[in-house]
Amino acid sequence: MHRSAVLPVLTVAILVGQFWWRGERFIAANGPTFDEAAHLAAGYGYWTAGEFRLNPEHPPLLKLLWALPLRIRGDAPDFPWEVAKQTQLNHWHVGMVWLYQSGQPPHELLNPARRVNLALGAGLVVLSGWVAYRVWGRRLAAIAGSGFAACDPTVLALSCVLTTDIGLTVFAFLTCYLLWEYVAAPSSRLLLAAGVSLGLTLGAKFSAVAVVAGLGLAGLLFVSCGGRLGLPSQAERGFRPALKLAIRLGAIAGVLLAATYGVVHFDQWGRGLKFQLTRTHHGDGVAYLLGEISATGWLHYFLVALPVKLPLGLIVAAGVSAVSLVTGLKQDSAHRRALFLVIPPLIFFLLASWSRVNVGVRAVLPVFPFVHLLASGLAASGSCPVFRRGLLTACLVGCGITAWQATPNEIAYFNELIGSPTNGMGYLADSNLDWGQGLPALKHWMDCAGVEAIYLGYFGTDRPEAYGIRYQSLPGYGRVGREGGETISPDTPQKIVAVSANHLLGLFLNDPETYAWLRERTPLAVVGGSIFLFDVSGDPTSLTHLHR
User: Fold this and answer.
1) How many angstroms separate the CA atoms of 428 and 307, rounded?
2) Quick one: pLDDT at residue 380?
3) Whole domain around residue 213: which residue ranges?
4) What is the per-residue pLDDT for 2?
5) pLDDT one-digit tens code per residue, 53-71
6) Strand pairing partners for 294?
7) In degrees, to the nearest 5, what angle opens at C-alpha 422 toward C-alphas 420 and 424?
8) Is 7 helix (H, G, I), strand (E, B) or coil?
9) What is the pTM of this model?
10) Of 204, 278, 330, 357, which is least packed with CB atoms within 10 Å of its CB?
11) Are residues 25 and 86 in the same domain?
């Protein structure tokens, strides 16, 4: 290694280390989010039972990776075949039985799988630095690219829970980068790598078809602008060699994708894709934006979500870099190549907005590394280099402080423009704020405050009993199976009500006004960024709501 590269490599290694440390803190502090039990049980079922019909709305690749540590160590509980048969492969019931009724603590099953996702997130930090170095040609850009990725709370949060978003993000970013390299110097090695990466992208999440659409449009524009796009051995220009390249990439990707389904179950990919494309027709979920609840969502949802969920330092750096690039834009081969780094995230964002599946900013996570890449462009050569580097340093330091302050509640992070999860409730909810992750923090608060039992209106699939929480159940959403809890005596002197943020806002309840009586109250505390606590002792009006 050249001596001049030692400092950047060491800095990136430190960034990866602090990313992993924050990830471990997150894993220790946050309970299973809404889908994690179902995802992990499905992955384990793929390995042990070859049953690919479980959880078909997501491809199996990442679920197989998550369950691999449990499969290797060999002491995980048996797959609950009887429950699967009785419930007609209902992954919610299978997941709950497998995670909570197996005799093993849930975190012993969940945490190894979460660390697989954390490794993918750490890989994204490294990849972001490498791509920034290759695109901008500056070692400082490599540090900046890794720094912005490592200090992004949303990236960290989605790297620590079993959601397919981080896997899609890593593989999509890698595919775009490899094609960016390929058009500059076509080779069989890059062709194979791009095809494999494309297959991994399609195997991560069904919304990967939007990435394919973006890459296809980028290729069309590249050829239309005079670029050569074809197989390594082809020298001619035009659309025919580009089509041959697309077929070769598709064949490689298709073989890999079929392999993730064990080949014989490959038809499940088409069925899952059909479900996702018609998701809005299934009455699936509800959306929240700026104080309004909608069953159909909004086209402008992500235009609101990104400015309040991205760190302010990242927004400033990306904005200044974008202005510099636009003002210095030239029509040459290097800028034509940039189409493979610009068009795919743009098309993905537009299609995600058009779909109106407003489940959270996580739905556009594949756009994030391209924003990090753009922000790292402040390290590139240009006018006012001292100002650019000074601004870049300030933005990175600001993002580092943001990352430190957000730990370990990164799911509920809102940037400095908003200030706190309490303020963020006026803008966004669902997985942007409350994903059912807060029960460990609630138990910790109860122990510290000496509270023995609470009234709980909880959103999520996690089980309060798993943490020894004594509670009387209030209206909630997500629990699979029998309702838990106990009846708290009306004579209990201290009456604490804990309500998940989603329910406090009226989401996922038959009556959105169920907890309207609490909305004007100042909470006693907010734990895990997602559960609001209220002391209603001695309030006769409130007691009538608790004992109806």
Assistant:
1) 12
2) 83
3) 3-30+115-406
4) 63
5) 888 888 999 999 999 999 9
6) 287
7) 70
8) helix
9) 0.94
10) 330
11) no
Same domain, yes or no: 181 and 67 = no
Task: Point out which residues pair with 500 in neighbouring strands.
Answer: 531
Clarify whether residues 334 and 466 are in a common domain: no
Beta-carbon contacts of residue 33 (< 8 Å; ≥ 6 apart): 161, 162, 163, 411, 431, 435, 436, 437, 460
Q: Give the tokens for residue 475.
A: 């209206």
Residue 505's φ and ψ, nearest 5 degrees, are -85, -10
* pLDDT for position 32: 95
Give every residue of the chain whose pLDDT is below 70, as ranges. 1-4, 264, 278-285, 328-334, 381-382, 547-548
Total domains, the chain: 3
**What does R_g of the chain's alpha carbons equal in angstroms?**
24
CA distances from 488 to 186, 523, 539 (A): 70, 21, 16
| 46 and 15 assigned to the same domain | no
Domain finish residue from 69, 85, 104: 104
416 is a domain residue = no
Query: How far apart, in whole angstroms, are the C-alpha atoms of residue 228 and residue 52?
Result: 41
Closest by CA position to 315, among listed 365, 372, 386: 372
- Residues 51, 14 within the same domain: no
Residue-level pLDDT at 103: 82
Residue 109, amino acid: L
Enumerate the β-bridge partners of residue 531: 500, 527
Asked if the structure places residue 417 within a domain, the reply is no
Tokens of 53: 């019909």
Is residue 424 domain-resident?
Answer: no
Residue the block writes with tokens 């201290």: 494
DSSP category for residue 77? P
Q: Same domain, yes or no, for 344 and 278?
A: yes
Find out whether 268 and 58 touch, Cβ atoms under 8 Å. Answer: no
227: Cβ–Cβ under 8 A, 6 or more apart, which residues?
183, 237, 333, 336, 337
DSSP state of 477: B
Domain boundary pick from 104, 132, 148: 104
Whether 180 and 290 map to the same domain: the answer is: yes
Contacts of 54 (CB under 8 A, 6+ apart): 41, 42, 45, 46, 84, 89, 91, 94
Return the sign of the alpha-carbon dihedral for residues 361, 408, 29, 155. Answer: positive
Helix, strand, coil percentages (3-state) for the chain, rounded to 5, are: 60, 5, 35
Q: What is the pLDDT of residue 279?
A: 61
